Please model this.
Amino acid sequence: MTKTQSTTALAPQAGTLFISDADVADLHDWPTAVAALSDAYALPITSAMVPPRVMARGQGFWLRGLCAISPSGEYMGCKLIAASPKIKRASYLISLFDQNSMQLAALVDGNRITDIRTASTSAVAVDALAVRRPLKVAVLGSSSLARNTLLALASIRELSSVRVFSPTPASRERFASEFRAALGIDVTATERPEGAVQGADVVLCAARSRDESPVLLGQWLEPGMTVISVGSTLPEQREVDEDTMARATLIVADMVEEVIHDTGDAIAAIKAGVDVAGKTIGLHAVKSGQHAGRSAETDIVLYKSVGSALQDVVTAEMLLRKAMLTRRCALLSQSIVTITR
Model:
């Protein structure tokens, strides 16, 4: 099925569009997604526009809701996540409403969007915080999120080399081979995580250990590094240790209060005496120019993400714009054919 067919076949000419996961794959490209989020974080955003998430818990499953109003002035929406760690299944739905008419403009399958928005926002953070030169990147993890974060970053910044660690040798070798071909640069697998981190400009963490012990230790970090942590978002989860949080000159968060109070990494660091709140700012503050971000090349800067409805809504509205444009082009093409006949 072509891009035009998959989008135009899903909805009538007027009313609510449904954009499936397959449509998201067809419509998505990394530069556009990263640009949409970069632009959004530079616009005025208030806390009222992105309230805290809510969660309903059952026995071994939960339903989480995240709402946001896009600073574009076009859409507002809600993402629902139904998940069961017990059976290792999750489903995602994003609803988009027109800010002017209040019409339900689209329902979007949020499965693929979850990785897209996390990876794209991480690329925005790296671009805002990392040193301005071709980047040496360390990747801890070989999951789809690790892959997507590297792809998003490579779409906007020049990379000089990549080193990847995964505890499974076959996974890290497969990752290295895949990106060696895709990026055309030196991509190597390492046997130990500290081997990947050594000498890097950017450390991408997109993994958690099975026992929730940290996968990144602060003792491995070097002056000037930018650390991206996207793999631990709940109080019971760990990805970076207390020393990482302590050594960071600055912590940049997508959702400041949730990062400080609701992530296992920050909770453990605070318990160990680290003043996490005192050095944590929002990504919006950096992108809008309210905060300079990195103040010196030797600073260690940490971007910590729990995910935000703003990211979901901005990504979904970007896809909706592309879907509507694709549909209009298809209808115009059909009209031309009809007239010609």
About this structure: The two ends are 25 Å apart (CA to CA).
